């Protein structure tokens, strides 16, 4: 009986040893267990719309502007939001001051109005490009004044994007942009019967102030020309898009452009 107990005990030890050897080899084949945390999922920014709305006997205001959320650079998010908020509030305050200071308008059965909307052309964690659609009317004027403004922001470097940021340092990019826009607008305005060479040449003279209104996406820059800059009011605002490839000799060393197109 004692001999049987010894044999059973030895069998258990042998079985345990075989199990340990087999299990150890299996673990080696599978490789070490990865205990490092999984990478954090990429966050995508979004936009919350804010509206300033006011209606009185003398004027109506409806100004909408974007506020960014969820950016990977919180400081840039705050700075961009602060700029857009201040710009909208300052615009409204200026409009109200003018609308309430003209006493003679109280005799007219007319209201002044201010309306602002926007379009998000591009938005990611690197940059944003916003087009704002402004329309204002002073009671008694012949017609409303409608125009576009733009807001371009580099979130990585935490600064607004100006035109020269998109080109190589000290490159003479304005004559090239001017020539491309002139050609595009000639075709565009001729089809509308609104082309004037003198008007276009004056509005597209190769100086930065003529090309400061633009939007950006990953493939192209779009210049916006408001009424009266390149054509009569009746022709309305005009825009010309230029693919970055047409400007590659002037922008291949631009760090800001690399951020936009990556």
Radius of gyration: 32 Å
Overall number of domains: 2
Work out the number of β strands: 9
What is the number of helical segments per DSSP (H or I, 4+ residues)? 6
Distance N terminus to C terminus?
Answer: 81 Å
**CATH T-level topology of the largest domain:** Heat Shock Protein 90
CATH C-level of the largest domain: Alpha Beta
Q: Which superfamily, in CATH terms, is the homologous superfamily of the largest domain?
A: Fervidobacterium nodosum Rt17-B1 like
Order of helices and strands: HEEHEEEEHHEEEHH
Biggest sheet architecture: 6 strands, mixed
The overall pLDDT, averaged over residues, is 86
Helical fraction equals 25-40%
Low-confidence stretches: 1-31, 33-39
Percentage of β-strand residues: 25-35%
Structure characterization notes:
InterPro entries: DUF3298 (IPR021729), PdaC (IPR025303), PdaC/RsiV-like_sf (IPR037126). Keywords: Membrane, Transmembrane, Transmembrane helix. This is DUF3298 domain-containing protein. It holds the Pfam family DUF3298. The chain is α+β, with helices and mostly antiparallel strands and 262 residues long. The chain folds into 2 domains: 116 residues, Heat Shock Protein 90, CATH 3.30.565; 98 residues, Actin, Chain A, domain 4, CATH 3.90.640. 36% of the residues lie in helices and 27% in strands. It has 6 helices and 9 strands. A 6-stranded mixed β-sheet has the order 1-2-3-4-5-6. The chain has a 3-stranded antiparallel β-sheet with strand order 7-8-9, with helices on one face. Strand 4 and strand 5 form a beta hairpin. It is flat.
């Amino acid at each position: 009986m004692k001999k049987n107990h010894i044999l059973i005990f030895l069998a258990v030890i042998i079985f345990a040893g075989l199990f340990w050897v087999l299990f150890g080899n299996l673990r080696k084949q599978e490789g070490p267990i990865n205990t490092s945390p999984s990478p954090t999922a990429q966050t995508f920014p979004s936009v919350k719309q804010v509206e300033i709305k006011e209606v009185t006997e003398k004027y109506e205001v409806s100004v909408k502007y974007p506020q960014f959320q969820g950016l990977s650079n919180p400081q840039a998010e705050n700075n961009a939001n602060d700029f857009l908020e201040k710009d909208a509030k300052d615009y409204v305050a200026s409009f109200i001051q003018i609308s309430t200071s003209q006493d003679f308008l109280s005799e007219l059965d007319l209201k002044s109005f201010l309306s602002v909307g926007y379009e998000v052309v591009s938005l990611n964690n690197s940059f944003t490009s916003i087009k704002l659609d402004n329309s204002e009317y002073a009671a008694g004027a012949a017609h409303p004044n409608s125009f576009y403004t733009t807001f371009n922001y580099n979130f990585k470097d935490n600064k607004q994007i100006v035109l020269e940021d998109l080109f190589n340092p000290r490159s003479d990019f304005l004559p090239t942009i001017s020539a491309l826009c002139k050609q595009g607008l000639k075709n565009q305005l001729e089809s509308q019967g609104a082309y004037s060479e003198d008007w276009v040449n004056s509005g597209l003279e190769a100086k930065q102030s003529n090309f400061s209104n633009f939007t950006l996406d990953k493939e192209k820059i779009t210049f916006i020309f408001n009424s009266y800059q390149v054509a009569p009011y009746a022709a309305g605002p005009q825009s010309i898009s230029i693919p970055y490839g047409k400007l590659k000799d002037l922008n291949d060393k631009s760090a800001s452009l690399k951020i936009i197109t990556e």
